[in-house]
Design goal:
This protein is an alpha/beta fold and 576 residues long. Helix content is 33%, strand content 18%. It folds into three domains: 3-75, no CATH class; 104-157 and 346-575, 3-Layer(aba) Sandwich (Aminopeptidase), CATH 3.40.630; 162-340, Glucose Oxidase, domain 1, CATH 3.50.30. Strands 1-13-15-14-16-19-17-18 form an eight-stranded mixed beta sheet, sandwiched between helices. Strand 8, helix 8 and strand 9 (263-267) form a beta-alpha-beta unit.
């Protein structure tokens, strides 16, 4: 039986048995075996070479390439070029590697360690804070303990700082006393709302000190669609009923600035009357109440950040009480917010580095910062813990397999929650290196499934912006299902998708996590190639960006799905 009649995997086994470096494609493997049959010298470990292709495949002399070219012509196969290095030419190329290990218990231990570093009062690791810096240092220490080189990146970026705990309350004046709601106002009734559970500041909120005696009016802006209502809200606190997102928060804050509002309150509520409530309205222990959550704004959309407009989100119950007692009643509001949103703070981007035989890069990343108002166990302590466990696994593999072909970086980012500041700054700082050498960026952001699979689902979504990468990912997913490591394939549903369209389109990669800069910010001029990335998102995070996002619902075994699949792909690229 000739080499052409053997399978891709069988050819690989023959090469391994002969101690030959195994190339990716079937035709390359045939060429290598023919070359070996002709008694040409084959080295199992590539040596330094000025030609990166020949360094990868030392058997690829002109005569062998001629054989491969004949195979191409004879088989009418389309050549596919992966940047500066040809990783796979042919459509019949197959993943023939092994699934790597991933210790879920160790990942949970990493997560618990990071959560313990949160703010003593608010529990979060807000970017630029001592807690965020402590998390970055902890990650650096772990990378060093694994035997990796460390890279302690720090970047000064536009960042707000909450300087004191905010206060929100309302008062119904009494019948005797002046001024209203002062200590002399007998019979007045005050309701003080609880920070983090009843109300949460929004990203880049400004500062104000509004007392009852200031008698600041509150205007109901409805769903914020009526420009006339905005104009009439000047010198008032505006209140919007609706579900905010990053873009809508940005537009709301811009409108507040344009119309000279004194403050902005976003009320989170269920507009479906219980038919399909938002996740933050279904959180166990808070059923029947829509818990407020943190979202940021896109600072690039502002000519200048408004320093004197406090911006917060309140629960539906708080919003209704303010509307009933203040907007439509005789009640008064007190709002005290102290935030400096005019300066810069240092955010960290620590990396552990496993040097390769070339400068070409594969980077794993997740963000170690969280919202200020909660532990962020799922978002994104889960991703950071996965990056740490993968770094540990790859360090162990290097001990047994030797130096990888690619230089591997394992990085965690600060500044994600406020606008991807850490990863954006990193890409800007290393732009030339990334443009020349980045092979693949792998992002793990909430790659986690809640423990309540029956109620919240069991799915994970794996997507990338290049069909060539996703072809292999799909093959690894198939192998994962066949081997069913630790029973994971029987328990979790894995969805894959290629999103290779333009930025901002439905078939393009979203710019909503740290993969965004590695995909799009690398394009500095027309004609520049986009960066290549693969991403994993999990499901079931009803506690997203709230104070409830703690370790109680942490499901460490779900992290192994993306850890094994994406880790196996990176290991195959690195070692074959």
């Amino acid at each position: 039986m000739g080499y052409e009649d053997q399978t891709h995997v069988e050819l690989g086994k023959l090469l391994k048995d002969r101690g030959i470096v195994v190339p990716r494609t079937k035709d390359e493997r045939i060429a290598a075996l023919i070359w070996d049959d002709n008694n040409q010298a084959i080295r199992s470990t590539p040596t330094a070479s000025s030609n990166p292709f020949q360094e990868r495949f030392p058997w690829a002399t002109a005569s062998v390439i001629a054989v491969v070219v004949m195979l191409i012509v004879g088989g009418s196969v389309t050549a596919i070029f992966f940047g500066d290095t040809i990783l796979g030419w042919f459509s019949d190329d197959e993943f023939d590697g092994e699934l790597i290990d991933f210790d879920s218990a160790q990942a949970r231990a990493f997560a618990e360690g990071l959560v313990a570093l949160g703010d003593s009062e608010w529990q979060g690791r807000m970017s630029g804070s001592a807690s965020e810096h402590a998390a970055a240092q902890s990650n650096l220490d772990n990378f060093s303990d694994f035997g990796l080189s460390i890279e302690p990146n720090s970047f000064a970026v536009p960042m707000f700082e909450i300087q004191e705990e905010p206060i929100l309350s309302i008062c119904m004046p009494g019948v005797i006393g002046f001024p209203p709601c002062a200590f002399t106002d007998l019979g007045s009734q005050e309701t003080v709302f609880t920070h983090r559970s009843d109300f949460v500041l929004q990203g880049y909120s400004g500062s104000a000190d509004y007392q009852y005696q200031d008698q600041i009016p509150v205007v109901d802006l409805g769903n914020a669609s009526d420009d006339g209502t905005w104009e009439n809200a000047s010198a008032s606190i505006g209140m919007v009923f609706g579900q905010g997102g990053v873009s809508s928060n940005t537009q709301l804050f811009i409108k507040a600035q344009e119309n000279d509002l004194y403050g902005l309150i976003l009320v989170t509520w269920d507009s479906t009357d219980g038919e399909n409530p938002p996740n933050n309205c279904k959180i166990p222990g808070d059923e029947g109440r829509c818990v407020p959550y943190f979202k940021s704004v896109d600072t690039s959309q502002f000519e200048s950040m408004p320093p004197g407009i406090p911006f917060m989100m309140v629960s539906d119950q708080v919003g209704e009480q303010i509307r009933d007692d203040v907007v439509n009643g005789e009640g008064l509001i007190r709002m005290i917010v102290s935030v400096d949103n005019q300066g810069e703070r240092d955010v960290k981007a620590p990396c552990g580095i496993l040097p390769g035989k070339t400068d070409e890069l594969i980077i794993f990343g997740g963000h170690h910062d969280t919202v200020y108002n909660g532990p962020g166990a799922v978002d994104d302590t889960s991703g950071s813990a996965s990056v740490l466990e993968l770094a540990r696994q790859f360090a162990n593999m290097a001990d047994s397999k030797g130096q990888p072909y690619y230089t591997m970086k394992f990085c965690t980012w600060g500044g994600e929650e406020e606008g991807l500041h850490g990863s954006k700054a990193y890409v800007a700082a290393y732009l030339g290196q990334l443009q020349d050498n980045l092979r693949l960026y792998i992002n793990l952001d909430m790659n986690h499934v809640d423990i309540d699979l029956d109620t919240r689902g069991n799915s994970l979504w794996m997507f990338g912006n290049d069909a060539r990468d996703m072809k292999y990912v799909n093959q690894i997913v198939d192998q994962f299902r066949q081997e069913n490591p630790k029973g994971l394939a029987s328990k979790y549903t894995i969805n894959t998708q290629t999103l290779d369209g333009p930025k901002g389109e439905s078939d393009g990669m979203p710019y909503n996590s740290d993969h965004g800069p590695f995909v799009y910010d690398i394009q500095q001029q027309d004609g520049d190639e986009r960066g290549r990335a693969i991403v994993c998102y999990g499901s079931g995070s009803w506690e997203y960006h709230t104070f409830h996002d703690d370790m109680d619902r942490f499901n460490e075994e779900s992290l192994a799905v993306s850890g094994i699949i994406y880790g196996s792909y990176a290991a195959w690229l690195a070692w074959g």
